[in-house]
Amino acid sequence: MRTPYDFDPGCTRRASVFTWLAMASVVTTVNLAYAGENFTVSSADFSDGGKIGSRQIFNDAGCKGPNQSPSLTWRNAPATTRSFAITIFDRDAPARGWWHWAVANIPASVKSLPENASASGALRKLGAIEARNDFNIDGYGGPCPPPGNPHRYVITVYALNVDTLPLAQGRPAALFDREISGSTLGSAQITVTYGR
């Protein structure tokens, strides 16, 4: 079947130029979509891949630390973020791992938490809620692994597509994790270690 381009060689060239421009436009759009910086989290108390700060260690079960939740700062969350959540999980604990902290309903305007935000009441002032961790206490519970190899603690800040999750203070951290997973737009992680 013939097309209009069969009758005018110039049309073929023009069609090729238009096709190339359309493709260039798509490539430019894709590149612009990825031109922004990545969603990241950092702490003044430790660095990714390093050891957790001494002030974050639990104060029980053979550990003698101040048990202060870490300072955290996050940047470049998705533009449509409506709230944030944070978890700290020991991936090397036996069986299913160990939840040290889960926080939800942090307002989207917040970009950092000070050290000890859990015990100091700073999170409550923001309207955030904290889960019951695997030490069976509400709020933050720092690292305190059994003696032996160091454990890895994954700290994750989640950007969520809802203002609040249907959770209540003191519900299990695993339940927080399920609700967070269902509303996540993006996440940023750092991993730190601690051993005795």
Automatic annotation (TrEMBL):
<dbReference type="InterPro" id="IPR036610">
    <property type="entry name" value="PEBP-like_sf"/>
</dbReference>
<dbReference type="Pfam" id="PF01161">
    <property type="entry name" value="PBP"/>
</dbReference>
<protein>
    <recommendedName>
        <fullName>Phosphatidylethanolamine-binding protein</fullName>
    </recommendedName>
</protein>
<dbReference type="InterPro" id="IPR008914">
    <property type="entry name" value="PEBP"/>
</dbReference>
<dbReference type="InterPro" id="IPR005247">
    <property type="entry name" value="YbhB_YbcL/LppC-like"/>
</dbReference>
